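Q: Given only this backbone (402 positions), what sequence would you predict?
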């Protein structure tokens, strides 16, 4: 039998951050991962401003600076009507957007948690629980796919990602994944290594595509789409990605002589935080399992790490108060709402507005012709600025009447 005061299930950025900040508070925390670190993780590899700030608070500033595959200084946006805006980013620390290979970054984050005092249990899938009474849980699972394992704890934190097997067993995940993305890597990118690209290409409707340059001419290339749109139109996402690379003018220029060097991998996204209650008796949800993925961009690393830092604070306080009831843990939901949910709802609204091609055309055209508006839009897309700043009357008037 394994015992820990807090168990964090899932060692992605959100889980690793949770374990790190708990360990720094002196909490006996066990971090459980179903695979062996490092492991590949299908993702856009983008670490935006918020996630970099959390990594700095974890003492990883030097590692980020020396290992970032790319620190972009320009962003190209295109719309369904072929409007194009290339936005030069100012020399401002708040514009930081790094491309970090997930397998390496996740391993470093986990190592930081372990160095802070967290214990790590790998190759262990948690897929059940029993409530033992007196505020204790017994987590059930398998190590190395065959060995039955039980872990007793006072508080469990699910950071499992979109599927959330353990969270579902706990009965508190109220919604399914609602978006999906595919990504692969190309070698031989002939474009500007400082230029990141996001395309709301008409051939990808109701989705978008991206290209993020990495080291040595390698690029992360992918497409993302709202799941109900994909199902309704019976879209073949693999074909969408291949056609995006073959037909988009910018992709043809950059990847015309490139070769794909990885399989095409898909990953679901859960962007419905507004429908999820992220706590229950003795349980908290962190990151994507709580729907904390930006509905507009699909970026989930920053929200996961922020929610992990908040969860660590609430969990440590619950231990000190010896109160793991949903009533006490409700504070976590309140703190998440203040930190993330309002902007999440505004992003959701903008995502729905961007379903109208004419509005995307106008937005990208405006961004290309108005430097301040373009910088503001990029700040919102990358999570540097909040969506509510663009909902203020000054910016709405600037957008509508220019």
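A: Predicted residues:
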């Amino acid at each position: 039998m394994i015992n820990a005061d807090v168990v964090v299930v899932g060692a992605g950025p959100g889980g690793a951050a949770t374990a790190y900040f708990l360990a720094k508070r002196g909490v006996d925390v066990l971090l459980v991962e179903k695979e062996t670190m490092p492991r590949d993780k299908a993702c856009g590899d983008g670490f935006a401003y918020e996630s970099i700030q959390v990594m700095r608070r974890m003492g990883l500033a030097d590692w980020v600076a020396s290992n970032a595959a790319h620190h972009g200084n320009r962003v190209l946006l295109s719309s369904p009507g072929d409007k194009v805006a290339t936005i030069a980013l100012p020399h401002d620390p708040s514009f930081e957007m790094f491309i970090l290979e997930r397998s390496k970054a996740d391993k470093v984050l986990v190592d930081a948690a372990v160095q802070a005092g967290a214990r790590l249990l790998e190759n262990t899938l948690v897929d059940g629980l029993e409530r033992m009474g007196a505020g204790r849980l017994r987590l059930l699972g398998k190590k190395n796919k065959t060995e039955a394992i039980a872990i007793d704890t006072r508080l469990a934190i699910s950071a499992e990602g979109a599927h959330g097997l353990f969270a579902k067993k706990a009965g508190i995940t109220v919604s399914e994944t609602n978006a999906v993305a595919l990504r692969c890597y190309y070698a031989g990118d002939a474009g500007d290594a400082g230029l990141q690209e996001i395309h709301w290409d008409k051939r990808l409707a109701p989705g978008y595509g991206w290209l993020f340059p990495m080291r040595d001419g390698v690029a992360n290339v992918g497409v993302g789409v709202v799941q109900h749109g994909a199902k309704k139109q019976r879209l073949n996402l693999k074909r969408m990605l291949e056609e995006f690379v073959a037909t988009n003018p910018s992709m043809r220029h950059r990847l015309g002589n490139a070769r794909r060097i990885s399989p095409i991998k898909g990953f679901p996204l859960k962007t419905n935080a507004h429908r999820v209650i992220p706590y229950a008796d003795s349980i908290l949800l962190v990151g994507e399992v709580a729907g904390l993925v930006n509905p507009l961009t699909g970026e989930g690393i920053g929200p996961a790490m922020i929610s992990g830092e908040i969860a660590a604070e609430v969990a440590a306080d619950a231990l000190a108060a010896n109160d793991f009831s949903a009533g006490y843990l409700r504070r976590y939901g309140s703190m998440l709402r203040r930190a993330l949910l309002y902007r999440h709802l505004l992003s959701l609204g903008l995502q729905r507005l961007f379903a109208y091609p004419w509005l995307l055309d106008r937005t990208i055209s405006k961004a290309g012709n108005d430097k301040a508006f373009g910088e503001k839009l990029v700040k919102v897309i990358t999570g540097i600025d909040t969506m509510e700043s663009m909902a203020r009357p000054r910016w709405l008037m600037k957008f509508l009447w220019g």
